[in-house]
Amino acid sequence: MTETCGMISLENTRLGFHHSGSTGVLVPGVDSRIIDINSIKPQPPFHKGEIWVRGQNMMQGYLKNMKATTETVDEQGWIHTGDLGYFDDDEGRLYVVEELLKCKGYHVFLISTLNLGVNLGPAVIVAFMGSKVK
Predict the structure, then answer these.
(1) Per-residue model confidence as pLDDT tens digits over 76-114
(2) Which of 52, 64, 108, 128 is the most buried (most CB within 10 A)?
(3) Residue-by-residue DSSP string for 46-108
């Protein structure tokens, strides 16, 4: 998430105990959504989707690369991070669970994202083609 140019969330252990796996709550001035990559609709708590963020600390675009900019930043200023995550419903803690890969215009999911419970061994990498990138 280098496009964010700074923090988007913070786990403040002085305010309570650490939540394993959480990156914390959003910092002031940052908005975020979890978006289903197929329907492009916001997801409720505990549902995985692509993490979208926007705020004053976000990049404006890629230098001299309009194509990459339009693929990453939409018209409303949301940065499509390419990372999968979810929010909990307690205090809005963000959990980043995996990077969403893109290959030849398609989303690609690693097998761990699909939670199939299959152990193929450490030398095997399995990916599944998902939806066409919009």
Answers:
(1) 999 998 889 999 987 788 998 877 666 666 656 554 444
(2) 52
(3) T--EEEEEEETTS----TT-HHHHHHHB-TT--EEEEEEEEE-SSS--EEEEEE-EEETTEEE
